[in-house]
Design brief:
Elements: E1 2-5, E2 12-15, E3 18-21, E4 24-27, H1 32-37, E5 46-53, E6 57-63, E7 70-76, E8 78-85, E9 96-102, E10 108-111, E11 115-121, E12 125-132, E13 141-143, H2 167-170
Antiparallel strand pairs: 1-2, 2-10, 3-4, 5-12, 6-11, 6-13, 7-10, 7-12, 8-9, 8-11
Length: 182
């Protein structure tokens, strides 16, 4: 496995070794010792799986307490995945990283605690799985607006159409009004 720091060093791109032949492929998606050697020492306690149609945008989500680190990947389709640093004391506060994750490239992204996370579905359908370092706690969940001009995330919107959003994401707050980390 390769562990590559992004422009925000705590956010890591994970590239697994894929063994393929005419029958298909095999790869390790998680190996505790290899991840620890790569700098990711999270203890994962929950796995999640979602399916979304093209044009769906989920995010930007985080938990203000019981903070979650997330190891994310796509098992079907393609998404544009985003992590935003929302730690006020960080030198990269308010900056974001975006990566294409797909069933073809098999890449994963480590989104550490202290970051808001979201993704936009590029393909017709996408299945998205992720491991979490703490349990889901709805009372602590927060959402930042996906289109906050202060973040200026360059979402690859299909035909510049508005994304499909949940009521929770429509009610997301701008970064300047959101409850953030110190």
């Amino acid at each position: 496995m390769q562990f590559i720091a992004t422009t925000i060093p705590e956010v890591m791109l994970v590239i697994p070794q894929v063994f393929g032949d005419s029958r298909g492929f095999f790869m390790e998606t998680y190996h505790q010792a290899k991840f620890a050697a790569g700098g990711i020492t999270a203890n994962f306690v929950q796995d999640n799986h979602s399916r979304s149609v093209q044009g769906t945008l989920r995010g930007l989500h985080y938990q203000i307490a019981q903070t979650q680190g997330k190891l994310v990947r796509v098992t079907r389709g393609e998404v544009f995945d985003v992590a935003v640093d929302i730690r006020r004391s960080s030198p990269t506060f308010g900056q974001w990283v975006g990566e294409i994750l797909s069933e073809d490239n098999q890449r994963q992204l480590w989104v550490p605690p202290g970051f808001a996370h979201g993704f936009y579905v590029i393909s017709e359908v996408a299945e998205f799985t992720y491991k979490c370092s703490d349990l889901y706690a709805p009372q602590y969940e927060r959402s930042i607006r996906w289109d906050d001009p202060d973040l200026a995330i360059k979402w690859p919107l299909i035909a510049n159409m508005s994304p499909l959003l949940s009521a929770k994401d429509l009610a997301g707050l701008p970064l300047g009004e959101a409850e953030l980390f110190a």
